Hints:
By secondary structure, the chain is an alpha+beta fold. The protein is built from 16 helices and ten strands. It has a four-stranded antiparallel β-sheet. The protein has a four-stranded antiparallel β-sheet with strand order 5-6-4-7. Strands 1-2 form a two-stranded antiparallel sheet. The chain is globular and about 90 Å long. The two termini are 51 Å apart. The mean pLDDT is 93.
Amino acid sequence: MNHTPVEGFSKLTKQGKIDWLVNEYLEGNEEYQNILQQYWNENPDLQKLHDEFSENTISNFYMPYGIAPNFLIDGKLFALPMAVEESSVVAAASKAAKFWLDKGGFKTTIINNEKLGHTHFIFNVESHKLLHFFNFNLKKKLLEATEEITANMRKRGGGILDIKLVDKTSEMPNYYQLKASFDTVDSMGANFINSCLEQFGKTLKQEVAISEDFTQEEKSSLQIVMNILSNFTPDCLVRAEVSCKIEDLKDDSGISNEEFAWKFKQAVTIAEIEPFRATTHNKGIMNGVDAVVIATGNDFRATEACAHAYAARNGKYSSLTHCTTDNGIFRFWIDLPISVGVVGGLTNLHPLVKFSLALLGKPSAQELMSILAVSGLAQNFGALRSLVTTGIQKGHMKMHLLNILNQMGATEEEKQHFVTYFKDKTVSHHEVINEFNRLREK
């Protein structure tokens, strides 16, 4: 091995972890010590708070925190907080929000709010015997066994909505599930759901052991494999949409309203039928969604996994957004499955998360679902609008220009020169380098 394994890394102090990393992997270069330390917060209590969000922490990783204003959502005006490092995401969302501001804005509907979890188990028993046992004994016992766990959630209007026995033996020998649906109100509910499911596993084992419905051989075959929530929540669904008369689309790219509407619909249809395009199309949607998810302290990995699973729910990966242009009306919408919370986790701890939620008017979980769907729809509208008119590079590369110039060590004066130089040109990396070299040679 090229390096020595470490014992007890988690027990080292933060400085001890840094010293070991720098000496073992970075040739003792003190510059790397300085890089890590310059991102520490000057307030030791705030830094300690951040250190304790995760494990083996040695520094903070900054992301730009921007604001996309002018979002009219269900008659209320919002400024959306967006934590994202990709150029043009905030700009595209803001431009889309402004476009729809005088056209009624964005409308949203919560279609459902169910979250799911499963107890996965192996049981070598005839399916009809297990189904009878579930219907006439087990289901009631499962609900009784979790009453203490669900008490506070039930007081807030949530809890376990239903429990079903799912027979998966046609796909895997002796495989069954207890599939439970939950309403976790304003919390993400992961710990709540997993606690309920773990109790399901214990109760299932106990009830089978004392049941007279099964032989001793059948009882001994029962194996609880795992109890875990699912991040695929197709019934925790929100719709966001925009619509207006085609004659009111008014695009400033030089093409007619009718051509714009036609090309836009074709672009969406292509994403509906072509997985290669749908992947990039949906990635753009999640640019908008994830930026607000991160800013509000929610789990962007879960929202990503759920959205992409939903996009493939019919056996073929497809667009999350849809468009019609019937009877002279342009309509564009998204159905987004998304599970988020506004209490618990980072929402009560991270100062910027608390700021984000305050900025959004301290929304409920369902209101945040609506905001997130809108941010994804706006991002997708902005991207498609560019794609079918001027092309994606014109706007995106102008936003990326400063990144290129910073990499090249440009001065503030040189940056201003480039902003002017590319005012009426499409930015390309090659052209930036050529002009930079020409400028420096003067």
